[in-house]
From TrEMBL:
Domain HTH luxR-type: start-end pairs: 148-219
One family name in Pfam for this protein: GerE
GO MF: DNA binding
Keyword check for NAD: no
Alphabetical list of PANTHER family matching this protein: TRANSCRIPTIONAL REGULATORY PROTEIN NARL-RELATED (PTHR43214:SF24), TWO-COMPONENT RESPONSE REGULATOR (PTHR43214)
Protein name (record): DNA-binding response regulator
Transmembrane residue ranges: none
Cross-referenced InterPro entries: CheY-like_superfamily (IPR011006), NreC/VraR/RcsB-like_REC (IPR058245), Sig_transdc_resp-reg_receiver (IPR001789), Tscrpt_reg_LuxR_C (IPR000792), WalR-like (IPR039420), WH-like_DNA-bd_sf (IPR036388)
Length: 219
């Protein structure tokens, strides 16, 4: 029998913290500790070694980007830990700091866009599976900071659509449902993307997927 996913939660507003914990609990995710500041977030992640850390960006003690800095420390110490950050506003520099040079296992969600509990649960499942869960507005902001040389110039419009959905963390099946095409068609587009970006067969398909997303985000 599979063990439930284990999460550490960081949120300084008690009502919001309890609400998120309840949503996760109903989905069978074990919130092993919920804290209200970034110092305790780092401590709890080190003690419990959870599958995922979920946190607000702005937290005590400084009420600035303490939550973001905390998950950066957590990822540096234990890269296999998936992380999701919530933000009330979009800041491309925060997103770039979070993604770093590897978007796998990373989520960045805008609070106002989380319209239902399932959005959060889907994001948790994606990042734990080492995909990304980036809000489309976050992706757009990252694209705006891309270098003038566009490595994606050779891609067709449909391939760009597929790559954008890959960057959001969608599987091939999820992409096929959003674009109303077959999974086989999506797989052909993904193969074309790999070829045009020079991502040959030397790496695994999952690793090439991560590399393609990095190219897309301009890293």
């Amino acid at each position: 029998m599979n063990q439930p996913l284990r999460a550490v939660l960081g949120e300084d507003q008690p009502i919001v913290r309890e609400g998120i914990a309840a949503v996760l609990g109903r989905a069978g995710i074990d919130v092993v500790e919920a804290v209200d500041n970034a110092v305790d977030l780092v401590r709890a992640a080190g003690e419990h070694r959870p599958d995922v850390v979920i946190t607000d960006i702005r937290m005590p003690p400084a009420h600035e980007a303490d939550g973001l800095r905390a998950v950066q420390r957590i990822r540096a110490a234990r890269p296999e830990t998936a992380v999701i950050v919530f933000s009330q506003f979009l800041d491309a520099s925060y997103a770039l700091d979070l993604v770093g040079d590897d978007p796998s296992g990373v989520g960045y969600l805008l609070k106002e866009k989380v319209a239902s509990p399932q959005v959060l649960i889907d994001a948790v499942e994606r990042v734990v599976a080492r995909d990304s869960a980036l809000d489309p507005d976050v992706i757009s902001a990252l694209l705006g900071r891309r270098r003038p040389e566009d490595p994606l110039a050779a891609l067709t419009p449909k391939e760009r659509q597929v790559l954008a959905l890959m960057a959001e963390g969608n599987s091939n099946t999820g992409i096929s449902e959003k674009l109303f095409v077959s999974v086989a068609a999506v797989e052909r587009h993904v193969t074309g993307i790999f070829m045009k970006l020079g991502l040959g067969q030397t790496a695994s398909r999952h690793h090439r997927r991560v590399l393609a997303v990095l190219r897309y985000l301009g890293q």
